[in-house]
Amino acid sequence: xxxxxxxxxxxxxxxxxxxxxxxxxxxxxxRKKFSKILEDYSEGRLIDLGAGNLLYKSFLKQYCEVYESxxxxxxxxxxxxxxxxxxxxxxxxxxxxxCRNVLEHVENPRRAMSEISRILKDGGxxxxxxxHLAYLHNEPADYYRFTEYGLEEIASDTKLExxxxxEAGGLFSFxxxxxxxxxxxxxxxxxxxxxxxxxxxxxxxxxCLKIDxxxxxxxxxxxxxxxxxxxxx
Length: 233
What we know:
- This protein has a single domain, classed as 3-Layer(aba) Sandwich (Rossmann fold).
- A seven-stranded mixed sheet has the order 3-2-1-4-5-7-6, with helices on both faces.
- The protein is of the alpha/beta class.
- The longest helix has 25 residues.
- Helices cover 43% and strands 21% of the residues.
- The relative contact order is 0.18.
- Helix 4 links the parallel strand 4 and strand 5.
- It is built from eight helices and seven strands, in the order H-H-E-H-E-E-E-H-E-H-E-H-H-H-E.
């Protein structure tokens, strides 16, 4: 069952593109938060670190002049196939770094954060998200979960200054994400069943978002954190 779900989730990411964000409360909350943060802070030359199958390319291109992508897994559409912990990119060349839920998959997130700092121009901004609640995924390369304090700590010995850290989603968004992953992952290749599952899932995800808002679980059981970090001169 796990292999089937993983395979179908990968297919959904490739075939739905940016629409994939809207199948879970987690993705919806991420999109809302990222839209505001990118509008306020993103500019110029942006690099998407851990870009994978370029799920966020069309979304991110709205907020920069030049979009570039990097991932350790080969993809013919990537600009760079490299390890985020040790790239050969030039120093101080990017105005914006976008790194969504990648640091939990690297052996040394502190080293990755240092690399983010190195490639950013002085005054440039890094937008980095990490999970706090998550199921095991991309095994065996699934090493860490973060608190906001841990995120601040791994940036503390770089030139990156924390502007703000926000929560994205809460406990019920996490439960909704699990529901979405299992339900749609099992039914994606069954056309009629998937159509019904998709509609049911949408209602469940909206309910999860509302319950999170009412209960305020994002403050003490956040699904993800998003940090805005500015490189000091």
